[in-house]
Design goal:
- The protein is 46% helix and 18% strand.
- The protein contains six helices and five strands, in the order E-H-E-H-E-H-E-H-E-H-H.
- Strands 2-1-3-4-5 form a five-stranded parallel β-sheet, sandwiched between helices.
- Helix 5 (110-117) crosses helix 6.
- The chain is globular, with a radius of gyration of 14 Å.
């Protein structure tokens, strides 16, 4: 059975951070537009990771599209928040709640994870989460 891939929907400027965080062990399909991401929603995807600022706010559109399709509705969907974002805790809580209601697993704040655990430990926690999601 071929291994499942990650559909990574992010802004181009977020690619260096996310690539470093994920490392090289996973098969990743990188998409920078909603149309490109939607075209790559396939049953062979084992995890969808979408940046909060993806394609000018299309994260919820992609989440809805993934959950509406019977072939992709069970794929775990995570939102990612990268560096340099200054959202208040109230805004982040609203994003988390809306994402949960639409079927996302959760939101991972990479900056906070790195601040709390240190860079290497944060990336290992992220990779372990990805490994678990892909093994389902």
């Amino acid at each position: 059975m071929p291994s499942k891939s990650i559909l990574l929907a992010i802004r181009p400027q977020d690619l260096p951070l996310v690539s470093t965080a994920l490392g090289s062990e996973f098969e990743v399909k990188i998409c920078h537009t909603y149309e490109e991401a939607k075209a790559n929603l396939k049953a062979s995807v084992g995890l969808i990771a979408c940046g909060v600022h993806f394609d000018q706010g299309s994260m919820f559109d992609l989440l809805r599209a993934a959950k509406a399709d019977p072939q992709t509705c069970r794929i775990p969907f995570y939102l990612l928040l990268g560096e340099g974002t200054a959202h208040s805790e109230a805004v982040l809580d609203g994003i988390r709640k809306a994402a949960k209601l639409l079927g996302a697993v959760g939101l991972t704040d990479l900056s906070r994870l790195r601040a709390d655990l240190g860079e290497q430990q944060a990336y290992e926690v992220l990779r372990q989460t990805v490994r678990q999601a892909l093994s389902i």
